[in-house]
UniProtKB/TrEMBL annotation:
The gene is lon. This is Lon protease. Its main location: cytoplasm. InterPro entries: AAA+_ATPase, ATPase_AAA_core, Lon_bac, Lon_bac/euk-typ, Lon_lid, Lon_proteolytic, Lon_Prtase, Lon_prtase_N. GO terms for molecular function: ATP binding; ATP hydrolysis activity; ATP-dependent peptidase activity; sequence-specific DNA binding; serine-type endopeptidase activity. HAMAP family: lon_bact.
Length: 773
C-alpha cells in the first residue's frame, strides 16, 4: 500500500513497529509535520538521519526505510519543545518526495509481507533460539530490568519479539537501522541472533579483562586496581604503552642536534622513565623533563642576514630621526659580522618611556632576519625566574631564558630583556645577579639552568636590554652592557613621527582610509604642544587614536562621509587644552624660579618658590625633597650669607627672619644634583625683593663658594624648557661641549647662556630694580 504522509527526521531515536515510545521535538520543520499529522489522521512517517549531528538535514541525509507511526498524544513544553507519544505500526519505505518546505511530505509504501516462508516448526525454533540468547545476554549484563526481561520472554509473536529486542537492547545505530530495513522476517530473526551473539562475545571479553585485573591486585587497593584495569584495556586495544613512549623519545633523541653530554643525559633519563613505568607519580615528572630537554634548540640555528645596507634601510623606514642610535647599531652589527665573534658587549637602549626602544629592537631583528622574543623583567624578583627550579620540586620548570628559546626553536634569536632596570631582589634571590651570567660573554657559553642540569650555550643569542633609569641597575650588571641613549623627542621630531607613522597606524587600527580622515599639519602640531607633555610619543599616539575613534563613530553613524582634522576639530573632540595655562606662569615674579630636572620619563620643569617672613632664623624646606636637594638648599643659604654685604643684606637679617623653600607637587619625590643655582637665585630674589625673569630657566649645582658645577640630562632639560615656552636657559659653562652635539632644532628658539659662577647667574636672572616697599 502507498500513502502520502508528513515526515519527521529523528536523530538516533528508533521507533519500531509494535512498540510505543516518547520523544521530544524542537525543530520548526518537525513541529509543522506533527501539526499536519494531528490535523489529518494522526499518521506520520518517522525515519532517521544518517548523521545525527546535522542540524538541518535534506532528503539525501535521511535513510529511505523508516516506520509508519500513529501519534497518540502531543504535549507542548516550555522553550518551544513538543513531547510526542507515538506507536509504531508498520515498516515503511520512502518511494517519492512531494514537498521539502515548509515540511517534508513524502510518499511511502508499507505493510510488506514475508518474502520467505518458515518451514514447519522453524518459527517455534527461531522463537526459542532468540529467547535463549536474550536470556543469556540479560544474565551476563546484569543491568536489565527484570520486569522487562519477563515481559519479553512471555512474547509468542516472533515479529513482535524481534522489534521489542531491537528497541530495548543498546545496539549501535547502524545495527538498529539494519534490523529496521530488513523487510523479510526470517532474515530479520537471523540478524537479531547474530547481533545478540556479538554482544555476548564483547561482554565475555570484558569479563576476562576484569578477571585479569582482579588477579593482579589487592581487593582493597581501589586506585591501583583502576590503574591496572586501564593498563589491560590499553593492551587489549593496542594503545601506547610505556615502552612505546620511551621508544618514541629515543627516536626523537636520534634526530636531536646536541652535544654528547646532553644526549647521554637525556638517554639516561629515558632509561629511568622506562624502568619505573606509569604507576608512580615520578613518571609524569620524568616525562615533562624529557620533553623539555628534547624541545630545547641545543644546536639548531636560523640563518642570519649580514646585509648592512638592508639593515640601514629597514631602520630608516621604521624610525624617524635617532641618527646616532642607528649609526651605533649599524657599527655594532658590522663589527659582529666582520669579526665573527659573539663576545661583543650587550646593547642597552636607555631612555624615557615611549621613545621607541622596544620597536628599535624589533627592527634590528627584522633587519638581521633573526627570530624575535621579548622577556619582560619588570617586577621579576625571583632568581629562579631566570635560572629555573630544580626538577625535584613539585611544579618545577625551566627559567624564562630556556622557555624563550623553546618558543623560538633556534639558539640564535634576538632576545629583548625589557625593563631590565625594574628587576629586583628579595628573599628568593637576586635577579640581577642571575642575569650577570646570562649577559657576560665570558660566562654565557656555559649557562647553568637549574632545571636542565646541563650547560646551555647562550653565546649565539643577540641580547638587547631596555631601561628607563640606569641608576636602578646594579653596577656589575651595568658594566656588562654598552649604553645607547634613546633621548627625548623635540616637537619637530614628534610631528614627523606622528605624520609618518602614528596617524597611519591609528587610521588603520580604527577602520578608516585616507579619504575618510585627513590631518592638517597645524592640527598635529597643536595636539603636540597643547595636549601632551612627554618625552616620547606614547601619549601622542593615544590622543591621535582618541580623535580617530571619534571620527570612526561619526562616519559609522553617517553624520559625516569624511572628516578633515583641524585645530578646531581637535579641540571639539578632546576638549580644552590642558597645558595652555602654564604659559601664563611665565611672568616676572619675586622668589619664584624655573628649574630644570631630569627624570626617568624625560625632562621636567620645577618651579621653586621661596617666602621670607619675620621669625627667628628658621629655614624650612618642603616638597618631598631628597637629601641631595636639601643639601643644595643649605649650600644656597651659606653662599648668600657669605655674600650678604655684596647684596646689601642686613647683618641681623637671618636671625630675624624665617625662610621657607618649597617645590610644588609635594606628593612627587624629587632629588638630584642640579637645583643648586635655582634655589640660590630664588632665595636671593625673595630676600632682596628683586623679580626673577619669568621666561628664564636654569640648571646647575652650586658650591658654597658660588661656583656652578656641570650637570647631566641636558637634552631632556632643554626640551622641557621649550615645552613650557621658556626663552632663555642658564647652563653650566662646563656643559658647552654637550650643546655642540645636539641637533640645531633642540636649541632653536632658546637663548643659552653659559655661566661659571653665581655672579653671572644673578646678573642674568634678577631684574635690575627691586620692588618698592
Amino acid at each position: 500500500m502507498k500513502k502520502t504522509l508528513p515526515m519527521l527526521a529523528l536523530r538516533g531515536k528508533y521507533v519500531f513497529p509494535n512498540t510505543v515510545i516518547h520523544f521530544d521535538v524542537s525543530r520548526s520543520k518537525s513541529i509543522r509535520a506533527i501539526e499536519e499529522a494531528m490535523e489529518q489522521d494522526q499518521l506520520i512517517f518517522l525515519n532517521n538521519q544518517m548523521d545525527p549531528t546535522v542540524e538541518d538535514p535534506g532528503i539525501i541525509d535521511l535513510y529511505q526505510v523508516g516506520t509508519l507511526a500513529k501519534i497518540k498524544q502531543m504535549v507542548k513544553l516550555p522553550q518551544n519543545i513538543v513531547r510526542i507519544f507515538a506507536e509504531g505500526l508498520f515498516r515503511a519505505e520512502m518511494t517519492g518526495v512531494v514537498d521539502e518546505e515548509p515540511l517534508f511530505r513524502v510518499e511511502v509504501a508499507y505493510n510488506h509481507v514475508e518474502q520467505e516462508p518458515f518451514a514447519p516448526y522453524e518459527r517455534e525454533a527461531m522463537i526459542r533460539s532468540i529467547k535463549e540468547s536474550f536470556e543469556h545476554y540479560a544474565e551476563t549484563w546484569g543491568k536489565m530490568d527484570q520486569n522487562l526481561v519477563s515481559y519479553i520472554l512471555m512474547q509468542q509473536d516472533l515479529e513482535l519479539l524481534v522489534d521489542q529486542l531491537a528497541t530495548h537492547i543498546p545496539f549501535s545505530l547502524e545495527d538498529k537501522q539494519r534490523i529496521l530495513e530488513e523487510m523479510d522476517l526470517k532474515a530479520r530473526c537471523e540478524a537479531m541472533l547474530a547481533l545478540l551473539g556479538e554482544e555476548l562475545e564483547v561482554m565475555q571479553i570484558r569479563g576476562e579483562i576484569q578477571k585479569k585485573v582482579r588477579a593482579n591486585v589487592d581487593k582493597n587497593q581501589k586506585e591501583y586496581m583502576l590503574r591496572e584495569e586501564m593498563k589491560v584495556i590499553r593492551e587489549e586495544l593496542g594503545e601506547t604503552s610505556v615502552e612505546d613512549e620511551a621508544q618514541e623519545f629515543l627516536d626523537q633523541l636520534r634526530k636531536l642536534k646536541a652535544s654528547k653530554e646532553v644526549k647521554d643525559k637525556i638517554k639516561k633519563e629515558i632509561g629511568r622513565f622506562q624502568a619505573i613505568g606509569m604507576s608512580t607519580p615520578e613518571s609524569s615528572v620524568l616525562r615533562t623533563y624529557i620533553e623539555t630537554m628534547l624541545d630545547v634548540p641545543w644546536e639548531r640555528r636560523s640563518r642570519d642576514s649580514q646585509d648592512l645596507d638592508r639593515a640601514e634601510k629597514i631602520l630608516n623606514e621604521d624610525h624617524y630621526g635617532l641618527e646616532k642610535v642607528k649609526e651605533r647599531i649599524l657599527e655594532y652589527l658590522a663589527a659582529r659580522a666582520m669579526s665573527g665573534k659573539k663576545d661583543a658587549a650587550i646593547l642597552c637602549l636607555f631612555g624615557p618611556p615611549g621613545t621607541g626602544k622596544t620597536s628599535i629592537a624589533k627592527s634590528i631583528a627584522k633587519a638581521t632576519e633573526k627570530e624575535y622574543i621579548r622577556l619582560s623583567l619588570g617586577g621579576v624578583r625571583d632568581e629562579s625566574e631566570i635560572r629555573g627550579h630544580r626538577k625535584t620540586y613539585v611544579g618545577a620548570m625551566p627559567g624564562r631564558i630556556v622557555e624563550a628559546l623553546r618558543r623560538v626553536k633556534v639558539r640564535n634569536p634576538l632576545m629583548l630583556l625589557d625593563e631590565i632596570d625594574k628587576a629586583g631582589k628579595d628573599q628568593r634571590g637576586d635577579t640581577a645577579s642571575a642575569l650577570l651570567e646570562v649577559l657576560d660573554p665570558e660566562q654565557n657559553e656555559h649557562f647553568q639552568d637549574h632545571y636542565l642540569e646541563v650547560p646551555l650555550n647562550l653565546s649565539d643569542v643577540l641580547f638587547i636590554a631596555t631601561a628607563n633609569d640606569l641608576s636602578l641597575i646594579p653596577r656589575p650588571l651595568l658594566d656588562r652592557m654598552e649604553i645607547i641613549e634613546v633621548s627625548s623627542y623635540s616637537e619637530n621630531e614628534k610631528y614627523h613621527i606622528a605624520e609618518k607613522y602614528l596617524v597611519k597606524k591609528q587610521r588603520e587600527a580604527n577602520g578608516l582610509n585616507e579619504q575618510q580622515i585627513q590631518w592638517k599639519d597645524d592640527a598635529i602640531k597643536f595636539l603636540i604642544s597643547s595636549y601632551t607633555r612627554e618625552a616620547g610619543v606614547r601619549d601622542l599616539e593615544r590622543k591621535i587614536g582618541q580623535v580617530s575613534r571619534k571620527v570612526t563613530k561619526d562616519i559609522f553613524q553617517k553624520k559625516h562621509r569624511k572628516v578633515t582634522i583641524t585645530k578646531k576639530k581637535v579641540q571639539d573632540y578632546l576638549g580644552n587644552p590642558p597645558y595652555e595655562w602654564e604659559k601664563e606662569s611665565l611672568r616676572d615674579q619675586i622668589g619664584i624660579v624655573h628649574g630644570l630636572a631630569w627624570t626617568p620619563v624625560g625632562g621636567a620643569t620645577l618651579k621653586i618658590e621661596v617666602n621670607v617672613m619675620p621669625g627667628k632664623g628658621r629655614i624650612q624646606v618642603t616638597g618631598s625633597l631628597g637629601d641631595v636637594m636639601k643639601e643644595s638648599s643649605q649650600a644656597a643659604i651659606s653662599y648668600i650669607r657669605s655674600q650678604s654685604r655684596k647684596y646689601k643684606i642686613k647683618s641681623d637679617f637671618f636671625e630675624k627672619h624665617d625662610i621657607h623653600i618649597h617645590v610644588p607637587e609635594g606628593a612627587v619625590p624629587k632629588d638630584g644634583p642640579s637645583a643648586g643655582i635655582t634655589m640660590t637665585t630664588a632665595v636671593l630674589s625673595a630676600i632682596t625683593k628683586k623679580k626673577v625673569h619669568g621666561d628664564l630657566a636654569m640648571t646647575g649645582e652650586v658650591t658654597i663658594r658660588g661656583e656652578v658645577l656641570p650637570i647631566g640630562g641636558l637634552k631632556e632639560k632643554l626640551l622641557a624648557a621649550k615645552r613650557l615656552g621658556i626663552r632663555k636657559v642658564l647652563v653650566p659653562k662646563s656643559n658647552r661641549k654637550d650643546i655642540g652635539e645636539f641637533h640645531e632644532e633642540i636649541t632653536e628658539g632658546l637663548e643659552i647662556v653659559y655661566v661659571k659662577d653665581m655672579n653671572q647667574v644673578i646678573k642674568e636672572a634678577l631684574a635690575a630694580e627691586p620692588e618698592k616697599r
